[in-house]
Amino acid sequence: MNGESVVPAGDAELFAWVEANLYSAVVSDSCDELGYMDQAMGPEIRPTDESLVLVGRARTSRWIEVDHVLENPYEGEMRAMDSLREGDVAVMATDASKQIATLGELMSTACRMRGGRGMVTDGLIRDVRRIRAMRIPIFSAGYKPVDSKGRGAAVEFDVPVEISGVRIETGDLIVADVDGVVVVPRKVEREVLHLAWNKTSAENNTREELEQGA
Fold first, then answer.
1. How many CA atoms lie within 13 A of 108 on its CB side?
2. CA 138 to CA 53: how far, in whole Å?
3. For residue 137, pLDDT beyond 70
């Protein structure tokens, strides 16, 4: 069976199929083969729970550092959460700030209640034990027990952003697991997934041969 007939068309079915059949490494390899060599984020972007997989559509926001409390300090991050749609992954770019804790338990709850599948940020996060208990996939650059108020703010939404050398646009496909985060540009998404399926099938056959002593 070829990849064309296997990869589902609708997002809900597609996300479930990717989770069940693919993984970040084979998706990254498939991007490489098609000439997209910079789609995997660096090793500093790690999951809070290594057992979870995240697949969904990127929904971007850009954050900046601030040095004072804004009049409406949570306005931007609330907008980022309130605008999420079913199947979205909130992608919060902070230019690798070590000052901004972009999210915690409350933002994670808001993401889930709006149908979001998880979040990715190059900033820091907090409330990690509670996030783990929620079993929502979150990928970040580290932990810090501080509030965003007076330290950072979300200022742009649905704009191209960059995290760990990877360009992300709203609508791109996010595939993330314990190995890391891969961003598949939407314009080549189906081609990448077809190729990844074929690679996975070939790897499965090779594994079976090796297990049989080949």
1. 23
2. 9
3. yes
